[in-house]
Structures are given as structure tokens and as C-alpha cells.
Specification:
By secondary structure, this protein is mostly helical. It has a domain of 54 residues. It contains three helices and no strands.
Length: 82
């Protein structure tokens, strides 16, 4: 099987959505679960940082692509209680 190389932002976004829809996780487990999901898809994750994954998650929430499921984005006004 050929390795896919390093994950692009879109690959990380896809992994984030898959992880959050398939299981209920805590913020402390988030990075490790996303990293494991990408590794099972054949990506190299040695240079993927925690900061990058969280930045992508925050961007997805702020752009309205998903709700703040983990409840960690400061100033986020789009919760389900509205």
C-alpha cells in the first residue's frame, strides 16, 4: 500500500468530523484521536502539531461548518441553545 504523505488541511478537517461524529470524546483526547484516524488512512503525522489541529477545529467552528462540540472555542455564539 502506498503511503499518502502528509495530510492537507482538508484531510484533517475530514478526520475531525469523522472522530467527532463516531464517538463522544473529551478535549484532552481530541488530538490523539484525530492523529490516529489519519494514521489509519495512511498519512504521515510526525510533523502534525497539536496547535495545527486545534486551529483547524476552531476555524471550522467559526466558519459555521460545525458546532463547537467540545465547547472550547472562546466567544463562539452559535450554540444549540439559541
Amino acid at each position: 500500500m502506498r503511503r499518502k504523505g502528509y495530510p492537507h488541511t482538508s484531510d484533517i478537517e475530514e478526520a475531525i468530523i469523522e472522530v467527532l461524529t463516531n464517538e463522544d470524546i473529551k478535549p484532552a483526547q481530541f488530538y490523539d484521536k484525530v492523529k490516529a484516524k489519519l494514521e489509519t488512512k495512511g498519512f504521515k503525522t510526525v510533523y502534525m502539531t497539536i496547535k495545527r489541529v486545534w486551529r483547524i477545529y476552531e476555524g471550522m467552528v467559526r466558519k459555521g461548518r460545525m458546532y463547537d462540540v467540545l465547547g472550547v472555542v472562546e466567544g463562539y455564539e452559535g450554540d444549540l441553545n439559541e
